[in-house]
Design brief:
Number of strands: 5
Shape: globular
CATH topology: Leucine Aminopeptidase, subunit E, domain 1
Helix content: 25-40%
Number of domains: 1
Structural class: alpha/beta
CATH architecture: 3-Layer(aba) Sandwich
Radius of gyration: 15 Å
CATH superfamily: Leucine Aminopeptidase, subunit E, domain 1
Strand order of the largest sheet: 2-3-1-4-5
Length: 151
């Protein structure tokens, strides 16, 4: 399987501020070092902020972590926060310009309660600005696939 240059993973503010990734990565990354120790200098992250870390044993070179805002009612700037998350993730990945492929998840469409159509519109509009040769959306079900294709 081809290694991706980057994987973008949306993080919750709670994870960033409380345990900054430790519990999240313990699920699928057996590490030789404590991820908490590795990531502690970066904490806390603000909504939309993005940082890079090693991908450890994932099939990628790096992982860009960004904080996705929770969707409440669409009246308190959530859309700009989601745009910033995508934009800043692209920006930190562009700092190391040797990679040609970048992959994103559908940020905000799970526990952060973003309306899928709105999240898709924002994601696609931001990812059209990608300068990578290949930009991929990793979607986990047919409903998301249809909405993102239509966006």
């Amino acid at each position: 399987m081809k290694r991706l240059g980057w994987i973008i993973k949306a993080l919750s503010i709670a994870i960033c501020r409380l345990n900054f990734l430790k519990k999240f990565f313990e699920i699928y990354l057996p590490l030789n070092i404590s991820l908490e120790q590795y990531a502690k200098p970066f904490a806390p992250l603000s909504e939309g902020q993005a940082i890079l870390t090693s991908a450890f044993n994932l099939k990628a070179n790096h992982v860009a972590h960004t904080v996705c805002p929770r969707f409440y009612d669409g009246q308190i700037g959530e859309q700009q926060g989601l745009r910033d998350a995508y934009s800043n993730a692209l920006e930190v990945c562009n700092e190391l310009d040797w990679s040609s492929t970048i992959a994103f998840v559908a940020m905000g469409t799970g526990v952060y309660k973003w309306p899928i159509e709105l999240a898709a519109d924002i994601a696609i509009s931001m990812l059209r600005q990608s300068t990578f040769r290949t930009t991929v959306m990793c979607l986990h079900n047919q409903e998301l696939l249809k909405v993102y294709r239509d966006a």
